[in-house]
Amino acid sequence: MVTRTIPSTCTECTVQCGSLVHMEGDRLVKITGNRSHPSSRGAFCVKGMNAPLASRTNPNRITYPMRRIGERGQGKWRRLSWAEALDQIAERFGEIKVKHGATAIAGACATFNYSRGTAVRLLMRSLGSPNLLINQDMCHGARATAALLSGFGGMPGNELSKATVIMVVGKSPSESDIVEWTNIRAAKAQGARLLVIDPRRTHVARLADRWLAVKPGTDAALALAMIHVILTEDLHDRKFVETWCTGTDELRERARNYTPDVAARITTIPAEEIIETARSFASTRPGSMVLGHGIDAQENGVMTALAFQSLLALTGNVDRQGSNRFVKQVPGFRGHSYFCNEPRFRLPAAIEDKIIGGARFPLWCGSGTYAQAAHNPSVLKAIRTGDPYPVRGMYVSGTNLVCTYPDQQSTVQALSALDTLVVASDVMTPTAELADFFLPKTTALEEEDLFIGRSEPCITLAQQIFSPQGEAKTDVEIAISLREKLEERGLIEFDVFPWSSHREFNDYVLEDTKGSLDELRQTGFRSIDYGYEDYKKSGFRTPSGKFEFGPGKLKSYGYDPLPDYKIPSFLGAAKQFDLVLLTGVRSMAYHHSRFRDHRWARRIKNVPEITINPTTAARLKISKEDWVWVETHNHLPRALLKAKLSDTVAENVVATGMGWWYPEMAGSSHGSSVFNIGVAVSYGPPFDPICGSPAEARNTACRLVPADRGEVEALLEGAELPLTD
Ligand code: SF4
To answer: What are the counts of helices (DSSP H) followed by strands (DSSP E) for the chain?
Structure first.
C-alpha cells in the first residue's frame, strides 16, 4: 500500500516530465506522471516508469571504484577505495599537465543541461582546460545554434496545445517527447491543423492533415520554397515583419531561387503540395513548430533550422500565445547551460581561444555560443595525431562515447591511445571497458537536480529518493573530491568550482530566486509568471535587436548569412550505394545507448532493427526474419541489423536507431562493434561549416547485403538477456 508520494522530475531524458514517486515505507511501488506539473501535466512515458528503479537495482551495476590491471579492454580490474582512486587519478592528470599543459586533459559528458555537465565543465576549467566534449553536435546543436543567431536566444519553446496550426519537422514525438506528443494530440482533437515533414511515416505523420515525405537532406529547399510562396502571395505578418525583422528583401531574393517547381525537383514533394502547406501554415494563427533532430547532424543543419525559424518569424509566430516562445528566464535561477557563462566561471580569453576546433568553428566552440564546447572529431584527431596539440587524458562522465559517437573504430582508437582515461558510470559500458579508472556514479533516484521546465516554464526539482547504492557518488561530489586531490598537488589553477557539497551546489543554483530547496521538495516544482512578446520590452537577442533573417553574426564571421540549401554530399555516392540510410530513429524503450541491459526495455525491443520497404526487401531477397549487413559509402566497417519490413519508409530509404550494444555479450565492445550502426557512419569531414556537426551522421548512402544465417548465429552468441524478471 502506498504510504507516501514524492513529487519529483524524471531525468531519464531531457524532456524532464514532472513525476510522482509512490512509496510504501522505503520501497518504491511505482512512478507515474504528475498531473499538477505545469510543464508535462501528467504526460509520462514507459522509460520514466521503469528506468529509474531498474537502473538503481541493475544487477550489472558497479558501486565501487576500480583500476584497470590488464590490457585495455581485457576486463581485468582491481577494486580501489575512493581515496586510492582519486589519488592515482590526480597523480596521472598531474603528470599530463606538467608534461603537456592543462589543455591536454579533456572532459566529456552527454549534455550540459544537468549538474553533471556543469561539474565536468568546471572541473576541467579548474585545471585550466577549456576542452569539453558534448554529444549535442549530434542532436540539438544545429537547431539551437540557429536559434541563438536569429534572435530566439536559445531553442524556442512551443505552445502546441494552444496552436491552431502545427508543423512538425524531422521528429517523432511519440517516441522522443511524450509531452509534445500529448499536446499535439490534444491540439488536433480541438481542431488544430497538423502538417508533418518527415521521410518516414511516423505516428505523428499518420495523424497529420498533410504529410510531406521529403527526400532526406533536402528540408532547407522545402522551407525556402514555402518562404517564397508566403512572400509572393503576401501571406506574411506584414506588421510584425516590418517592425521586428531585418533582411526581408535579401531573404525574398534568396527564396526566389526556390520556386515550388525547383523545390519539387529537389525534395520530391509535388509543387502543389508545397504551395498548399505554405498557405496552410501562414493562413491560420497562432502556429507553432516542432523542429526535430532529423535536421541536425547534416552538412546544412544550421541553415536548415534557420530557414524553418524564418518561417516562424515571417508568420509572426514568435513569443505569442500558441506560437514558439522565447526562452523564458526565471529571475535569479542559474540554469546549467547559462551560469558557466558568468565571468567568475570563465577562463582567461587566451585559454578559451585554445579550445580544440575553435579556429574552424567559432560559432560552436567560442564563448557566447550555444555549446562553448570543443569540436569532438577534432579532439579525437588530436588524441591520435597531436594536432593541433596533444590530448593525453580524458574524464568521461555519464556518456558512452564508443556507442554514441559515429565512426566507432576511430573513437576506440583514440580512447585507447590516451595515457589516462577515467570513466564515471553506473555500469560497465564499451567506453568504460577502455578506461584506466572506473568511478561509480549515482543513478537518477539517488541524485537531486534542478531545471527549468521545457514545455511550460517552471522550476522543477528531481528529488533524491534513495541514498546512493554502495559507494556511488554524484558527478558534483566526484568533481569536488577530485578537485581536492588536484588542489593538494597544486594542480588547480582557477577557482571556478567553489562548492564543497552537492547541496551547496544546488543552493547556489537557486540562491537568487527567493525560493529554497526545502520549499521545492514539498511540491516538486514552482510555477513562474511569464508573459509574451518579450521583444517589445527588450528586443531580440541580436546586434540589431530584431529577428535577423540573415544573422549579422554569421556575416561577421565570413559566412553567407542567409538560409540556403546545399546538395547533401552523400548524393554523390557511387551507384551501388543506392539507398538513403536514416539513423538516430528514437525508440520508446531506449535513450541513446542506455537501458540495453534493462529487461523491461529489451521486452519492447530486443534487437537492433533496420526498417526496409517491402518492395526493396523483395528486390534484395530480404525476408522478415533476416539480418542484413549495412554498408555505407564511407569505407567504414559494416553493421549487422535485423530487417523490419514496413512501408513507413519509401523504397529508396532505410531507417535505423543508434547506439546498440548487448551488455550481456562477452568482449570489450559487448557486440557494439558489429551491431551498432555507429561503426558504419562517418564522423566527418565534411562538417556543417557553422556548428561542425558531421555531414553524414543522420543521412548517408548505403547498400544492404543479406547476411548468412550461420554467421549471424555465431555473431549473436551470448546475446541472451533473460526477458522475464
Ligand atoms: S519523456 Fe519519459 S524518459 Fe523523458 S523525462 Fe518524460 S517520462 Fe522521463
So the answer is: 28, 27
